[in-house]
Write a structure and sequence with these properties.
about 475 residues; alpha/beta; TIM Barrel; eight-stranded parallel β-barrel; four-stranded mixed β-sheet; 15 helices; globular; binds 6-O-phosphono-beta-D-glucopyranose; Glyco_hydro_1_AS; hydrolase
């Protein structure tokens, strides 16, 4: 579809940037915070790149005012952050930690004072270790009540000031790593348990949305989904089937359940034949269907291209966590699909396909299938950056990436997509969970590396000045 003229970005478009608690806050054991599963996991040898961890991260907990001042200077109109569950409920439930709650009060108030809309993520992967130990975190149905109580605490405390909320961040990506690839805690590879944990997480997501309706009736809430639109490798029917399988098993399984409260039937039948489908109790599907989100949060980085995978074909493989280009193997599910490089697309040093048109396709597919507004809750480029003399970082590659993806957003708006905003990933540099500090995403460089926290100095990259101009022009000057 070619447009002769493009629609402008709407006046109330959210020009944002994003972060997550574990990746920026640090202060992992300060002011009464409890441990999360990540605080424990990163201490196990070999789990993360060069043993990097978020003990200090970029010390946002202590530098919050400085970071918000930089956001204001840049002209952000939205900032997406997550609350650390064990910072506010050290044991996951029960007594709240007032110092933790007060930190987020200060952050929210500082944002509002600058006219920056807070977008609060309830869960960005930092399950309280206490609940993991007690009943297996997402594997225990008790988490539905505990997560609901935690969310209600935040709705009551911040709902007067925070109107845009994200429920679960990337349940699909996080639990795939946790229960299939063994790369996030609790590091298992068991498909039956994977689908069981997802089913419980869906129910917890639904509980949060139901409580939200009562406690923040004038707010809007939705999950953030890691959406990698599928492409077929060729027009061979076997590749089309592989593509179809990938859409069902890697995308619709989550999106259909969030938005319609139903599992894709072909995928469900396949899992039932193998005894790997989740146990669905009476009332479960009704609870899911009753919790339709207000919008879909879209985390978009790349598309994936699929080809046929025979029953004795390749299984799931670890991703590239070193930045050594070309080191990602083909990965798949025997009998369903496997990934193959897309010869049409350039890739980053971490082998992520750079595909702005894929973002437009993602937005169009979401709109046509679910008829909901979309908030881009993450999009950005993780790359090596070089701090040069005079405190300069010339990240032209990141500007190019973001410019082309924002242009794709404008095409999608012109296609009829109700796009609420764009939160670039990330505001400052962050800890990339498995890739350490060398895979940088920020507009603001943070002077530290894997093991040496140095002075944690903030340095505006070229992309900082570029995004400031984009925002000031309302997206007219990309
Ligand atoms: C998403 C997460 O998976 O993508 C972020 O929500 C993450 O927390 C981002 O940092 C980029 O992924 P990575 O693995 O490069 O850090």
């Amino acid at each position: 579809m070619h447009h002769v003229s493009l629609r402008p970005f709407p006046d109330n478009f959210l020009w944002g940037a994003a972060s997550a608690a574990y990746q920026v806050e640090g202060a992992f054991d300060i002011d009464g915070k409890g441990l999360s599963v990540w605080d424990v996991f990163v201490r196990e040898p070999g789990r993360t790149f060069q043993g990097s961890n978020g003990d200090v991260a970029v010390d946002h907990y202590h530098r919050m005012e400085e970071d918000v001042a930089l956001m204001a200077e840049m002209g952000l109109t939205a900032y997406r952050f997550s609350v650390s569950w064990p910072r506010v409920l050290p044991q996951g439930r029960g007594a709240a930690n007032e110092a933790g709650l007060a930190f987020y009060d200060r952050l929210i108030d500082a944002l509002l004072a600058q006219g920056i809309e807070p977008v609060l993520t309830l869960y960005h992967w930092d399950m309280p270790q206490a609940l993991q130990d007690e009943y297996g975190g997402w594997e225990g149905r008790r988490v539905i009540d505990d997560f609901g109580d935690y969310c209600a605490l935040l709705f009551r405390r911040y709902g007067d000031r925070v109107k845009t909320w994200v429920s679960l961040n990337e349940q699909n990506y996080n639990l795939s790593n946790a229960y299939l690839l063994a790369t996030h805690p609790p590091a298992l590879a068991d498909r039956k348990r994977f689908y069981a944990a997802n089913h419980i997480a869906f129910l917890a997501n639904a509980r949060a949305i139901q409580l939200f309706r009562q406690l923040v009736p004038d707010g809007r809430i939705g999950p953030s989904f890691a959406y990698s639109p599928a492409y077929p490798a060729s027009c061979a029917p076997a590749d089309l089937l592989a593509f179809d399988n990938a859409e069902e098993f890697t995308n619709h399984w989550w999106l259909d359940t969030y938005c319609y409260g139903r599992y894709p039937q072909v995928a469900l039948a396949w899992l039932r034949q193998r005894g790997e489908a989740p146990d669905i109790l009476p009332g479960d599907m009704a609870a899911l269907a009753a919790a339709k989100p207000d919008f879909i949060g879209l985390n978009y980085y790349y598309t994936l291209t699929y080809t046929d995978n025979p029953p004795d074909g390749v299984g799931l493989q670890r991703i590239n966590t070193t930045g050594q280009k070309g080191s990602t193997p083909s990965s798949g599910v025997p009998g369903l699909y496997r990934t193959t490089p897309n010869p049409q697309l350039e890739t980053s040093n971490w082998d992520w396909a750079i595909d702005p048109t894929g973002l437009r396709i993602a937005l169009r597919r979401l709109t046509s299938r679910y008829a909901l507004p979309v908030l881009i809750t993450e999009n950005g480029l993780g790359e090596f950056d070089r701090l040069e003399d005079g405190d300069q970082v010339h990240d032209a590659y990141r500007i190019d990436y973001l410019r082309r993806h924002l242009a794709a957003c404008q095409e999608a708006i012109s296609d009829g997509v109700a796009l609420m905003g764009f939160c670039a990933w990330s505001f400052t540099d962050i800890l990339s969970w498995l890739n350490g500090y060398q895979k940088r995403y920020g507009f603001v460089y943070v002077n530290r590396d894997e093991t040496d926290v140095r002075d944690l100095r903030r340095v505006r990259k070229d992309s900082f000045f570029w995004y400031r101009r984009v925002i000031a022009s309302g997206g007219r000057e990309l």
